[in-house]
Design brief:
- One of its GO terms (molecular function) is purine-nucleoside phosphorylase activity.
- InterPro entries: Ppnp, RmlC-like_jellyroll, RmlC_Cupin_sf.
- This protein is mostly beta strands.
- The chain is built from no helices and ten strands.
- It has a six-stranded antiparallel sheet, with no helix packed on it. Strands 4-9-6-7 form a four-stranded antiparallel sheet, with no helix packed on it.
- A hairpin with a 2-residue loop joins strand 2 and strand 3.
- The protein is globular, with a radius of gyration of 12 Å.
Length: 93
């Protein structure tokens, strides 16, 4: 069964599902700045749009565009700057 989640006053919406590669979410983000925490390792793939990401331990943001993937280990926080509506797929490991 799907589970829908909404964050940041509805500016980030995701749907959780069990895919062939395991637990995952697919979602969309409106333009804005966000901080997320992880409970599992997350493999984030940009489906549409782009975002700037500041990974744990980094001092600067790096841009990720369509088809780019970044990984955030469990129990860490990371920051995003989203300038255009962006869709993503997140796989939990």
């Amino acid at each position: 069964m799907f589970k829908s989640n909404s964050y940041f006053n509805g500016n980030v919406v995701s749907i959780a599902f069990n895919g062939v590669d395991g637990e995952a979410t697919v979602g969309v983000m409106s333009p804005g700045e966000y901080e997320f925490g992880t409970s599992k390792q997350e493999h984030m793939k940009i489906i549409s749009g782009s975002m700037q990401v500041k990974l744990p331990g980094e001092d600067t943001f790096k841009r990720y565009d369509k088809d780019d993937i970044f990984i955030v280990n469990a129990n860490l926080k990371f920051n995003l700057i989203v300038e255009v509506e962006t869709a993503y797929l997140c796989l939990y490991k």
